[in-house]
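Report of the visiting student (M.T.), summer placement. My assignment was to run the structure pipeline on a short list of targets and document each run. The first record concerns Chitobiosyldiphosphodolichol beta-mannosyltransferase.
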Amino acid sequence: MALVNLITSTALVTIFMTLGIFFYSPHLVGFIPTRYVPSADARDDHIQVLVLGDVGRSPRMQYHAISVIKNGGRVDLVGYNESPLHPQLVDHDRATLYPLPELPALLKNKKLPFFILGPFKVIWQACATFYVMAYQAPASRWIIIQNPPSIPTLHLALIISVLRGSHLLVDWHNYGWSILATTRGRSNRFLVVVGDQSSGKSSVLESLTGFAFPRAAGLCTRYATQITSRRDDSESIDVSIIPHPSSSESRAEQLRGFQRSINIEDLALAEVFADANNAMGIRGDGDDPSSTDLTTFSEDILKIVISGPTQQHLTIIDVPGIFRTSTENLTTDDDILLVRNMVKKYITDQRTIILAVIPCNVDIATQEVLTMAKEVDPDGLLLLSLGAVAE
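After the run finished, the structure tokens were exported:
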């Protein structure tokens, strides 16, 4: 049944695309796009990177483009121009962006039923992308796409590669992660770093991830921070925010728009954290403590992706430090409960390996985090305890 559905959907998409391509613009009919001709110097050959989405929010495909220009090649990016490109691609003489036209307002109308909206949206995207790839961008030696999504990206890339004599290269990274998510489910583990405030967690995180986290004398971590390391040819740090599910639609959209890309050698991480605090509405030192629009802690997640050729595939989550006494004009009893619940939520996850950071100058028997860990892992099979110098 699954094979029949796949064949049927592919056939329907191909029909829609074929009809749309020939009705998109009269001058397309009977006009064959120019074919790829090898250049005398291979570095002058064009490589086309197709993103059926916002190019600025596709770091992996941008890294492919950066790798091309670092090796002296020319890259043509095809996709929606909504977010800023990676700094290494902006105004580079060997990188060109060919933007796709936006969807008409009618196709953005969510009130229309999907069985009507879906096919017309596919037709529009297919026709617009075909026109840009076949007639606006020069013929390329290679076409690079990412799968998923495959409809209509894969079908279009196949058609263009045949018409223009290009080679097709598919990045299956997303597909690989989809398979892992389906077959392994919740067995993919991550490390959660827990401890009291100023227990030394920042130093431990620096040792694990290789770069320094901002330190402060008072509260440091105001929200969960997810640090994902992955191996890649290009070195970079990409920072974004995952809104809490309870956020309003407008707030969630605003937080999703928070995107930062910095180099590993860049020392501006503290500024990025400050910007994230502002985006989440975290109360700062100079803010009015009575303001109801600001909070001391947030249930949003700051996501940091560290890429580089020496990075290991690892996910670490840092949660706010546990504290037991509220401070006037800074924290409340509700904040104490919120942080405890946040820590408990992460350490009770079946995928969690708990890394409890204990200051060397305190009695281990007084550490509440060990009691909480023992409640969820009585045998201590998923608990690591580490002594650290208090910050």
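The first strand starts at residue 46 and ends at 54. The CA atoms of residues 113 and 330 lie 49 Å apart. I thank the supervising group for their guidance throughout the placement.
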